[in-house]
Structure prediction request, 157 residues.
Amino acid sequence: MQKFPMTAEGLVRLEEELKVLKSEERPAIIRAIAEARAHGDLSENAEYHAARERQSFIEGRIGELESIIPSVEVIDVARLSGNKVLFGAHVTIVDEESEDEKTYRIIGQYEADMKNGSISVTSPLAKALMGRKIGDSVEVPAPGGARSVEITAVRFT
Prediction:
């Protein structure tokens, strides 16, 4: 069985999502389907079809979470330190061409959220940064061609 690295916080979020889906969302959608059925002809009942679509999404997500959670390997980021990029690190990089500075946290693929500044350990950027140190210049593959970035900071808090 393949293991997926994840922070403890990420695992808690997935477990909470699964709990809500099973205890709140699933019963609510079952009630909505029953109510829509009571309205008669199902072939032209938009409420029924929307509820069935929602049910399909919920059941699919429950199945996905039930397969991911047992395969999670929690990495205790609090025990990590140093100037080397590892799983769980907050990494500040500067684009050597544009001088743009960005900070990302490298975390598991099922908890990453680019909008919140976290990237998956399996992303091209994270793969290029892993194992490197502060001051290293790293070439990162990008859609418009490779970009060079310099690692300016690494922290684990």
In short: The beta strands are 4-6, 72-74, 90-95, 101-107, 118-120, 137-140, 147-155. The helical segments are 8-37, 46-68, 124-129. The mean pLDDT is 91.
